[in-house]
Design goal:
The protein is α/β, with parallel strands linked by helices. Helices cover 49% and strands 14% of the residues. It is built from 20 helices and 15 strands.
Length: 504
């Protein structure tokens, strides 16, 4: 019996087309999902689109189209990332779907029934970019420092979030809610121990331009009608995507019974996932996420990405020019999750040629070519030397290093471990020089030993690459002899170069 495993991206606002920042998050989550599947788990990988944001309304007004038209078109582009980035997502949920509205209404009623909500006046500053009221004393939003804050005065529904802080902190201390990397765990604990404040979870329908889910049973007049805050709406998508609100059996199988419930998210929205989301789940008497995997931002040549700005690199265009796995490799290998990472086309090209074309692609091409010339079958090894034993130490430890890195949400370390073995295998080939051994009939045993160890290194590299670069892993497997990945006696079949050098 397979054990359920849940993983999600955050759902992005769809006020514009996807940029490289969300592509990064999607690829990170995909690696976690593929790695869990390889371990035998029954994975539900969820993503979607956040459609009830004021940002979407304002973007539609600027474009001169209806909000429904804008979010429909942009949501389709986010859904298209599945094919473009070779994602293994199972569900794409739109927050404008009827099934999602039913889930949000169910969540709201659970809060109301358990006395978690009360009405009170609010007066303060609001950041439309974050869709949140800024804390008392803040003059600007750290996430959107260039945007003017809106002064708001209205009577809203509030959630008794302050009552949940100690419970959440205890769960983090005891490891029931893990937050990686460690720096973000400490950040959340500091926030919780400073004391949570109750939070407004509704807005006036007038200020939301009517583009939101109405508060169920709200007795207010049309003038002061209330709609549900977009963050309560958006967080509920993690549950609505898998049946909460319309298929309790499916929800139970994918969420309640899951060994892990993992959210992959950017650092700027951590507080919503570490405080508000557990509080909402507590009110619904549902289990919490088990892990929050938090990544830094992607900058482009030092500039923070904005969907409508010059730094908004299109993942579609980048993949069209250079291929999916080249893009995945750069994101995973060269953007460490524990800090912000920078992208530039110049650096991307340099990485592609040095690490993918010259190292990985060259290792496969020359190994398969040499085996073809030696008879076309992967040979068996004969007597080993110190060179083989040194290579085997690197190769045999790769799977454990990759597993450990991915368990700690350090895919950049997993990619680096793979790159190290590729480098070691190429260095071994240079030392052994099988092209020279092939010219000496007396060196046949040494040649066969060398070719076996190169094929075996590629076999292990392909297995390690499978969650990171799935297409590349399949290509290596095919050239080495399909599913058996280069076992002795199998025919190799030379294919197209994995990563042709980029013309400059």
């Amino acid at each position: 019996m397979t054990i359920p495993f849940y993983v999600s991206t955050a759902i992005p606002y769809v006020n514009a087309e996807p940029h490289l920042g969300f592509a990064y998050e999607a690829v990170l989550a995909d690696v976690i999902a593929r790695h869990a599947r390889a371990r035998g788990h029954d994975v539900r990988f969820v993503t979607g689109s956040d459609e009830h944001s004021l940002k979407n309304v304002l973007a539609a007004e600027r474009a001169g189209v209806s909000v429904a038209e804008l979010v429909r078109a942009n949501a389709a582009r986010f859904a298209a990332l599945r094919e473009t980035l070779d994602l293994s997502t199972d569900v794409f949920v739109r927050t404008s779907e009827p099934r999602h509205r039913a889930a949000v209404e169910r969540s709201w009623r659970a809060l109301a029934e358990r006395g978690e909500l009360y009405r009170a006046p609010y007066r303060g500053l609001y950041c439309a970019g974050c869709e949140r009221f800024v804390d008392e004393g803040e003059e600007r939003c750290d996430e959107h420092p260039q945007s003017a804050l809106e002064r708001v005065e209205e009577e809203n529904w509030f959630l008794r979030l302050s009552a949940h802080g100690e419970t959440i902190a205890r769960a983090i201390d005891e490891g029931r809610l893990r937050i990686e990397p460690e720096a973000h765990r400490r950040e959340v604990l500091a926030l919780l121990r400073a004391g949570l404040r109750d939070v407004s979870v509704s807005r006036s329908a007038r200020r939301a331009r009517g583009w939101a889910i109405p508060v169920p049973g709200d007795a207010g007049s049309a003038k002061d009608a209330q709609v549900i805050w977009v963050w309560l709406d958006a967080l509920t998508s993690y549950a609505s995507a898998i049946g909460y609100g319309d298929d309790d059996e499916a929800f139970g199988a994918s969420w309640r019974e899951a060994r892990e419930r993992v959210h992959v998210l950017g650092k700027g929205i951590l507080r919503f996932h570490a405080a508000l989301w557990p509080a909402l789940l507590s009110a619904a008497r549902e289990p919490w996420p088990t892990r929050l995997y938090v990544h830094g931002y992607v900058t482009v040549e030092g500039r923070k990405i904005a969907k409508s700005g010059a730094a908004a690199i299109s993942p579609f265009e980048l993949v069209a020019r250079h291929g999916t796995d080249a893009v995945r490799w750069f994101l995973l290998r060269h953007l460490p999750v524990d800090r912000d990472g920078d992208f530039s086309l110049e650096r991307f090209v340099a990485v592609h040629d040095a690490e993918l074309a010259n190292q990985l692609g060259n290792l496969l091409a020359r190994t398969v070519s040499l085996i073809e010339r030696a008879g076309g079958r992967v040979p068996s090894a004969h007597e080993e030397t110190e060179l083989e034993r040194a290579l085997r130490v690197e190769v045999d430890g790769l799977a454990a290093r990759v597993d450990d890195a991915l368990d700690r949400f350090a895919p950049h370390e997993a990619a680096s471990a793979i790159a190290r073995v590729v480098l070691a295998a190429n260095a071994y080939a240079d030392r052994r020089a099988p092209w020279s051994l092939a010219r000496d009939p007396d060196a046949r045993p040494a040649l066969e030993t060398t070719l076996f160890h190169l094929a075996d290194a590629l076999r292990v590299i392909a297995l390690a690459l499978a969650p990171l670069l799935p297409s590349t892993a399949r290509a290596i497997a095919h050239q080495l002899g399909a599913d058996a990945l280069g076992a002795p006696g199998l025919h190799v079949r030379r294919g197209a170069p994995l990563f042709p050098r980029i013309a400059r």
